[in-house]
Each structure stands twice: as structure tokens, then as C-alpha cells.
Amino acid sequence: MEERLAQLEKVHRLVVTQGEEELPDGSSATRYRFAHGLFQNFLYGDLVNKRRALLHQQAGEQLALHYGSQASRIAAQLAMHFERGRDFSQAVEFLIRAGDNATQLYANDEAEKYYSRALVVAEKLPSEDQDKRTLVIYQKRGAVNLALSRFNQAVEDFTQMVDQARALSEPTLESAALNALTLTLFYSHRLEEMAASAEEALRVAERAESEALRVETMQLIALKHLCFGELTEARAMFDEVLRIARSLTHKPLLLNVLAWRGLLHFFQTEYARAEDMLEEARGLAVEIRDGFLLLLTLFGLGLTRGNLGRMSEAMANLNEAIKIGQRNGDRFWLPRLPNCIGWIHREMQDFDGALRHDRRGLEVGREHHVLEAEANSLINLGLDYDHTGHSENTLLTFGEAESIFERDAWFRWRYNIRLQAGTCEHWLAKGETEKAREFALRAFETATRHEAHKYIAAAHKLLGQVAVAEGDVAEADRQFAAALEELRTFPAPLVTWKTYAQIGRMKSQVGDYLAAREAFAEAAKILTSIAANIEEEELRQTFLNSTAVQEVVNKAAPSA
Fold it and tell me: With the CA atoms of 255, 256, 258 and 264 taken in that order, what torsion angle do they form, in degrees rounded to the nearest 10?
């Protein structure tokens, strides 16, 4: 036994004294791992428990001393030593640091395990030391569960945090906990609970006398307004919060408000401002390592750049988001991405590709129970069916989407506009002009109420198509002119080229061939720009050789 102890002490000295002048890296790191492994092998021999615990404690202390300010680099190993050495306070500290390390690497599932272990070990602390420690752990684990889209677990964590903050009579901590809980309820589509939590959070923030917490709560109330389609209120609150967040240099709040204010610019067809804001938010998300909001910014940038006709950039953003989401274990943004790529393929006239991606979007949305992603995939599929000769499935598919909107109010105002416009297109293709007009007017009313200028223009275009089908040229002229007027102020090239193409067809029908050629020429300019921004050669050729694009190009030619 004495010989074994002597060997153990020799290895122990090797572990805690090697590389005194520098931290282990390169070959010294190999030496450290070898020695550390030998140490553990000896440690689990026939030593009695008390001696074993003492050696773990000593190893932890010596390693922490050796690494100094860099001790967090080996936080997981230190946590193991201190827990087995029965120094539970240090064990909890280094388990938290290990979780933080994993979070910095977007290893959220690993981080959740460290925080969960920290909660277990914290139960062994004296009662007077537990509350503040566990409050911090619940906050961190809640944030990780939110990033993993485990919303129910995150709600439980933040609820525990709220309860502990109240028990400690700490209004500042209670306010922070309520803000985190409110945000989680928002993402989990529990909107009535979210609204009640936001009101309570604002009261507590005012009691805490913290400007930073107050504006965090204001941002959450702005999110509630945005979600319910109360855009005037949302816009005013976002702009106020943005101003204050910049003055406070409050980066997490600034990131949140930039991302969602950028998305509101996108909703209202202010694409240049949306792109600038979302790009700033993207850089900030990378800087502060917020993987969840990084996905939001990439989602928004993909949709914004796609609507600007920059299709390859848009797909690159969306594919990057898919890659990051898969790596991070995301289940919130990831299901929304395939149908966005499906939309881009449909705009590039690749209807088979659109159908494939939209079916994938429906599958993933259902797998992860993300109703809004499921509904948008269904709307896309209905449009795909009309383009691929399966229009008998369109209304059934639209009906499924509508039933989801009846159950889920999350951004329902926005996606209903798409559904109404898509239903109008279906009835137009069937020659049912009365039904088409009904849905075009619904789309126009909803888009106008929410200042969704792309869809205001699209509704004018659809009403113009209805008028053409009914032989009312004067009304068609008026509707197409209104669409173009809207698009001059709020450029949306994907709608603009289609509007000019419809004008060209109408003018051809009435024998005004010069006006028709001019309209087709305007459409062709936009199509040329869109094609120039498609880097994938096969997709570019699919786009250029499609029936719709060939019609425009041929009829724009002087000889047409």
C-alpha cells in the first residue's frame, strides 16, 4: 500500500507541477492528459473513500491554482475533481463554467447537461447558499433550453427563477426572470400567457427602477403587438427601444430589437432598411454568440434578399441557417426554412424543386409540431399544385392551412395575406372571376391595414387580372397603374416584373402592340437582373427557359 501511495503522489506532482511557466498546449497537453489519466487510474484502486476524496480535492485546488485566470478552460475536469472531493461549492462553480464554455461553442445540448448537473450538486450546498446559485443556473439552463426550442422546459426554468427571485425579495432579479419567461412564452406561441406575463414584467421593472430592464420589457410588449398585427404600436415601441438600447450599449437588447425591427421593415416591404438592420443584427449575434437570434437574422436576410431578386444570396443565407440550426439542435427556426427555399425555387420557375422543398417543409413542420411552418408549407404546396397540374389538391391544401390559422394566432395576420392571394390565383386559373375578386379584395384589405406594400401591389395586380378576364380594360388599366405606383415607392422586383408582364398581355389583347412591347421590355430588364444574380447554372437555365420568362423576352424584342 505504501508503495502504491508513493507512485500516486509522484503522478499527482506531475499533474499539478508540470509546465509552471506556461499553460499546457502542444506536447505538454499530451503529457497532461497522460499524467491525468494515470492519476485517475491509481485513484480508483484500493484507496479508502476519504483518502480518494482528499486527493480529488487537492488535484482540483492545484489544477485551479496552476491555470489561474484560465481555469475555465478545464472547467469540466475541475468540476469532476471538486464534486468527488466533496467541495460542492467549487463543483457548482465549475459546472456552471463548463456549461458556459459549451454555450460559447453552440453546444447547447452539452451545456444543458452541465447546468442540470449543477442543479443536482447545488442541493448539497448549505440552504443559505443555494437560492442565488440555483437562480443563476435556472437562468442559464432556461436560455439553453430556449435555444434548443425546448420551450416547456425553458418555461419551467424561468418560472423557478421568478419564484426564487421573489423568495429573495430581489425585484431586479424578478424583473429579469419575468422578461425571460415572457420571451419564452412568445416563442412557444402561448400568447395569452405572454401578454399577462409582459404586463407583470413591466410593473416589476418599474419597481426595480432599472432602465435596462424596463426597455427589455418594452421590447417584449412590442413583440406582442407585432405578433398580433398591431403594427403602428409595434413600430413606435421598437424605435423607442432601439434608441435607448444604443444609448445604453445594451448588446443583447440591441440584437433583439434590431432583428425584430428588421423583420417588421421586411413585412412592410422596406427591403433596403430591413437588409441593413438584419445585417447589423447578424454581426451582433455572432459577436455575443447568440445562435438562436443568428438564425432569425439569416431567415430574415434570406427572405429580404430573395424579394430583392438576389436569389443565390438568399439561398446561401437560408442554407447557412439550416447548417447552423442542425448543429445547434434548433427546432424553432429550422422547420421554417425548407418552405422558404421552396418559395425561391417557385420564383425561379423551378416548380418541381419548389414542390420537393415544400413537401420537406411540411414534413419537418409536422415532425416538430411547428404550426406556422406547417401552414406556410401548405400554402406553398397549394401554389405548387396549381403549377404542376395537380390543382385538384389546391383548395384542400389551403383548407388545411386555414384550419391551422384558426388554432394558432402567431403572426396569423401576415400569413393569411399569402393564403388569400394564393386562393385568388387559384380561382383566376379556373376562370372563376367572382371568387377570384373576393379573395383579391380580402388580400388588399388585410395588406392595406398592415401596410404590407408588396401585397397591396400584388392585390392590385390580381384585381387587374380579374378585370382583364371580365373584359373591363379601363378597370384593368387602373388596377395595374395602382400596382406600379405602389411598387415605385416600395420596390419589389418579383411583383414588378409580373405586373409589367400582365400589362403586356392586356395591351396585346386590345391591339396596342407598341405599349405591349414597352411593358414586356420593362419586365425583361428586371428578369435579366434576376438571372444575373442566380449563380447556380442549372437553376439559371431553368429560369431563363421557363414559359413565363420566354414569353416576356420574346415579346420584348423589337421584331415581336
Answer: 160
Provide the CATH number for the domain around residue 548.
1.20.58
469 and 459 in a common domain = yes
**Looking up cell 491555470, which residue turns up?**
67
Q: What phi and psi, each to the nearest 5 degrees, are found at residue 396?
A: -60, -45
Helices 371-387 + 394-407 axis angle, to 10: 160
Q: In this predicted model, what pLDDT tens digit does every residue of 99-155 receive, in sequence order?
A: 999 998 888 999 999 999 999 999 999 887 888 899 999 999 999 999 898 999 999
Judged by DSSP in three states, 225 sits in helix
Buried/exposed 418-454: b ≥16 CB within 10 Å, e otherwise: bbbbbbbbbbbeeeebebbbbbbbbbbebbeebbbbb
What is the total residue count of the chain? 560
Phi, psi dihedrals of residue 369, rounded to the nearest 5°: 60, 45
Residues 64-81: tens digit of each pLDDT: 787 788 878 888 888 888
Q: What is the DSSP string of 282-305?
A: HHHHHHTT-HHHHHHHHHHHHHHH
CB neighbourhood size of 3 (10 A): 7
Report the distance separating Cα 443 and Cα 416, nearest Å.
8
The domain tally of the chain equals 3
pLDDT at 40: 58
Domain boundary among 353, 387, 410: 410
Contacts of 482-487 with CB under 8 Å at 24 or more apart are 483/457, 483/458, 484/457, 486/453, 486/456, 486/457, 486/460, 487/457
